Amino acid sequence: MTATIQQQKDIQELLSTITNSLRAFSLKLTGNMNDAEDLYQDTALRIMTNAEKYNPGTNFKAWAVTIMRNIFINNYRKKVRRNLIIDQTPNNYYINSGNKTVVNDGESEVTFNELQELVDRLPDDFRVPFLMAYQGYKYDEIAEQLGSPLGTIKSRIFFARKKLQKMYEEAMRERMVASVAS
Q1: Quick one: what percent of the chain has pLDDT higher than 70?
Q2: Which stretches make up the RNA polymerase sigma-70 region domain (predicted)?
Q3: What is the mean pLDDT of residues 62-91?
């Protein structure tokens, strides 16, 4: 079934009223302006090509956001599948490959103490549950010990990880600037 010209015009008009919301949502999903713009364009195209599937009088924004979310999820799943590489190399190769040494300069890049400093800079509400999870406690055990709801503990650990990622990236950027300057 193909949409009539009037349906196409109606959909274009509705789409123009929610463009800013869709762009903001796409940025929230992707966290990147270029990917967000691609997601918005894919969504707009899908909306226009499926205009006949929209039921007039229903919530157009919800319909459009659902389409965007589904496109994002499908793209994410494709990306994960593409990056999934199964190593079928026999382990004997590595054992019998001679006396080749592999240089690991990870220790010189970031020391454990530097990472510990980043963790120590987290607010107590985030640091304590994060460290307990790091030590192997289960979420429900952490919630019970701290007297907090399970959902609160999960979100605090999640946000602690996100904050640590940002702090780590900033520290690496500062390190790169310092190494370039010297």
Answers
A1: 83
A2: 21-81
A3: 80
2 versus 18: the higher-pLDDT residue is 18
Contacts of 43 (CB under 8 A, 6+ apart): 22, 26, 64, 67, 68, 71
What's at 35, amino acid-wise?
D
Residue where the block lists tokens 């987290």: 122
Residue partners of 111: CB distance under 8 A and separation at least 6: none
The DSSP secondary-structure symbol of 135 reads T
- The identity of residue 118, as a single letter, is L
Domain boundary among 67, 83, 99: 83
Average pLDDT over residues 78-101: 61
Q: What per-residue string of b and e applies to 71-94 under the rule 16 or more CB within 10 Å gives b? A: bbeebeeeeeeeeeeeeeeeeeee
- In the chain, how many domains are there? 2
In this structure, is residue 53 part of a structural domain? yes
Q: Is residue 129 within 8 Å of residue 157, measured between CB atoms?
A: yes
| Residue with the larger pLDDT of the pair 179 and 6 | 6
